[in-house]
Amino acid sequence: MTLLLVVALFVAVGSGGFLVFEQTQVAIAQSEHAVAFKKKEALDKAVADKKAKDDAAAAEAAAAAQAVAAAAAETARLKAEADAAAVAAGFFPSPTADGEVFIKPMDGGCTTMLLCSWISVAVVSPCVTGVYIAANLETSDGVVVGRTNSITGALDPQHPAVVELKYAGDATPDLTSRVTDAHCL
């Protein structure tokens, strides 16, 4: 019986000890779970913050790209309007200035004994250093018999220039002046 009592006492103490051990393990597990849950919450917040920051940066980049595209479209529209106005006024684009310089033949007498031709020069955007103009004097067959060049003063879109191009040589009826270059310097 003593033996039975000792065994019962060990079982009771062992069960109580097991309960204490089990409760300790549960408390440790709950603490570790709480720490892991806080870490997961912090990680989720960091991921959400990064996604929000990336989304904001992407939206900002899209807005900037849209602004650049709108500015380019407006520039193209304004250039098309300026080109149309120049053509309506009798000007035509320079052969070399990509739509920035327009020229128009003019009538006028020569100021010297040399052969000459007159042209009007207009620009789409300011050309503060002037416009370089080169022209050939050609026969009706397209044979070049003379060449000349000139530089205007500073030009802006509201103020075209008139230029006299002078050629050396004798005047014959079949010679014409053809502008070969007109660009902003």
Describe this structure in words.
It contains one helix and seven strands. The chain has about 180 residues and is an alpha+beta fold. The strands form two sheets. Strands 1-2-3-6 form a four-stranded antiparallel β-sheet, with helices on one face. Strand 1 and strand 2 form a beta hairpin. The longest helix has about 90 residues, at about 1-90.
Could you list some keywords that capture this structure?
four-stranded antiparallel beta sheet, 1 helix, 185 residues, three-stranded antiparallel beta sheet, alpha+beta, rod-shaped
Lateral strand order in the biggest sheet: 1-2-3-6
Strand content: 25-35%
Give the integer mean of the pLDDT values. 83
Distance between the termini: 121 Å
**SSE sequence, one letter per element:** HEEEEEEE
Coarse structural class? alpha+beta
Structural topology:
Blueprint: H1 2-88, E1 92-93, E2 101-106, E3 115-123, E4 131-138, E5 144-151, E6 161-167, E7 176-184
Antiparallel strand pairs: 1-2, 2-3, 3-6, 4-5, 4-7
Quick structural overview:
The chain is built from one helix and seven strands. The chain has one helix at 2-88; strands spanning 92-93, 101-106, 115-123, 131-138, 144-151, 161-167, 176-184.
